[in-house]
Amino acid sequence: MTATPGELLAQRPALRPGTLLSPALLHGPATVHLIKEPEGGAAFEVGAKEYFLISRLDGSRSLAEIGEEYADTFGRRLAAAHWRRLLQLLGARRLLAGAPPRPAPATPPGTPFSGTLLRGTLRLVADADATTARLHRLLRPALRAAVLLPLAGLMVAMEVLLATHLPELAADTWWLCRRPVALIAVFTLLWLSTALHELAHGVSARHYGGTVSEIGLRWRLPMAVMYCTVDNYRYLRTRWHQLAVAGAGAFANLLFLLPFLAWWAALPEGDPTRRVLSGLLLLGSLQALVNLLPLPPLDGYTMLGHTLRVSGLAPESGRFLRLCLSDRPAAAAYPRRARVVYLSYGVGSALLVLSLVAALATGLSFLLVH
User: Fold this and answer.
1) Can you tell me the distance from the alpha carbon of 114 to that of 366, in angstroms, rounded to the nearest whole number?
2) For the whole model, what pTM was predicted?
């Protein structure tokens, strides 16, 4: 039996515990919010008005009370039919309290391996979230500002020192490239640094309330790297927490280099071990710092998206620039903030790529000459 409008507005529905709602995100010309069901369900976008209603479904306020708040904010009242459509949507997605959880997908047969020998993935742990939880408990005493800030200061000092020795580091790295055994040792250490990079994302996510769904090995021969899939980072409470999770990998890369810097500094110039360490320090620093560039799929791009509260920054910037060339009225219809963000990123990222290409060409010319 369908409830009358009065009965409907007297209801006090609540979202299921564990439902996640993101802060406002710019996506194209619109401002949207992401909503994700518990137990790892898929996320979907809603507009600002729908978010206003959904975020207030806490079981303490009736639909009539929420409707009054909506009318005060947006200047119009909602009909009972609108409420019915909204509750039907949330019910279909199992987002209302009392709804049964979505059935767990059947475990696929076979091994955690997927793909081919040339390209594929291998899940390394059965429960990635539990694994990172154990790591987090072990490392938690060190995840305090009193520890991390001095370490960050040491990393900055390390990069300044290495910058002052850049000619030596470049020459030693070129020397290293002609010694295969030493070069393999350096790349093995850099691979280990990459693994620590991924685990750092997972531990940081656990520290700030996120979850980790998978830890594994991904390869496209001859390259193979570890990966750590972090979930729910878009729903963390503050922008700072999101940035910390995204930047944790580069932090781990630079932290990994600090003991090698001390070893390098203790050796005289020209010492073969120092020259090998020079290559490790230069390549390791490039590995960390390049990853902070705001280009997809690097962590710096993710950090910039969190900072600006933008979803799909690169593709939406490309879309906006194409509109500027082909449909100026449509581009002009974008809100001012969207126009500024997309134009700035589109032009800035193009200039950055050109600068990187020029720097790479200059570096190769230097190495060939010397």
Assistant:
1) 43
2) 0.90
